[in-house]
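Worked problem 6 (solution included).
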Amino acid sequence: MELMNSSKLVRYISFAFVISGFAAGGYIYRGTFSVSEAKATPSVIPSVAESQQRPVKTLPDFAEIASKQGPAVVNISVSGSVKAGFSGFPGFPQVNPNDPLYEFFRRFQPPTPQNSVPTHGLGSGFIVSADGVILTNAHVVVEADEVIVKLTDKREFKAKVVGLDKLSDVAVLKIDAKDLPTVKIGDPQNARVGEWVVAIGSPFGFENTVTAGIISAKSRSLPDEGYVPFLQTDVAVNPGNSGGPLFNLNGEVIGINSQIFSRSGGYQGLSFAIPIDVAMKVEQQLLDHGKVSRGRLGVMIQEVNQQLADTFGLEKPAGALVSSVEKNSPAEKVGIEAGDVILKFNGKEISRSSDLPPLVSELSPGTIVNIELWRKGKIKNISMGVAEMKVSGEKGKASGEGKAELGITVRPLTPEERKQADVATGLLVESVGAGPAARAGIQTGDVILSVNGERTGSIEKLRSLVKRKGKRLALLILRDEQKMFVPLNLG
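Solution. The predicted structure is:
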């Protein structure tokens, strides 16, 4: 169901045209004027021929896209119910549980059962097949008891949710209809930053609202949405726009409007769309199998910044830095280690860490891939099979004498702490004072696992590594059950 908050909305932008004109004015020249002077004075007014040669730039024709593609955009309304919780005692619904009378009523007059409160939501979608297949957002229809699709000709159909995928936020609906208008599918890979885009949807229930803007960025990775390389636009979108199409100027769908960033709950200039090629792959799997299978390597990764690039000897900040490797995963079986930097995946360069998850997830389990990685100053190539993604999470938390030259107090983990954190060795940070570690963001409770790829389980080993490794260090730490590299500059 459509959520009226800042994290799960979709958007369409109302666009205003400002027509600017010019006015001509006159003046009186007071002074002498000669013909020779006039001939010598260069002309500042372009000739008719010159003005005709200049290209005339006009705004794109959004009306054509709206008239041709609008009939394939649908309005979606959903209804469901949620439990309202304790509804009180008959005749005395407002009795506070802290009131002395509450116990009396509880003993001699049972409370009324929980009530189901009806809920309603709005969204948008678009027809991709003439026999009634419709794409929208998963969050529009999730947990809905009834889904009604309304066409532009005012016909309404009860829709069946064929399947939905929460990771990509894509859902497939089916209505019992034939010969429906459909959208044209485009290629988001060919879209360029700065190009005009058009959105059609139902913000706040206003059906077939047309808005426009430009592509602001491509391949955006959002928090908790690492498997979708979003298209960022400045198209205005609001509640009710979720699931609607994003068109290029050829009238082709290149994305599904899905989210906005907002502090107010409404449009604030940042809109995000799911690339249509990602959505179509999800649609095919949902139609064929009713679920989506994704590839998995079994690694945790993080971004490579300049400090980490210098520490690992890379020419520039690029790639995906492996911060931890899941036990018994495909990555562990082929020898991938924490500290490796994945530079290429199946021949495609990994410029940012966010480039990797979408490439892996779109592969079928069992696919053999080639990985080029950077390990201790050298290029290494590895071939491996991709496993199927599963919901998993290795639990482990270190609880937390000696001083290291980093400005921190550490001690070795006890056997119980190592078992709980599921690590072979490590040093617990008990306090952080002024110094390099504090500047790098090391916190009390962190567990230092390695320095520049070498494990450390004692204070003496940590001091030795710090002295031997130079001014630039990369500490692998465990924090809140997650492993990460922290670059540290002793200079």
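Discussion: The mean pLDDT is 78.
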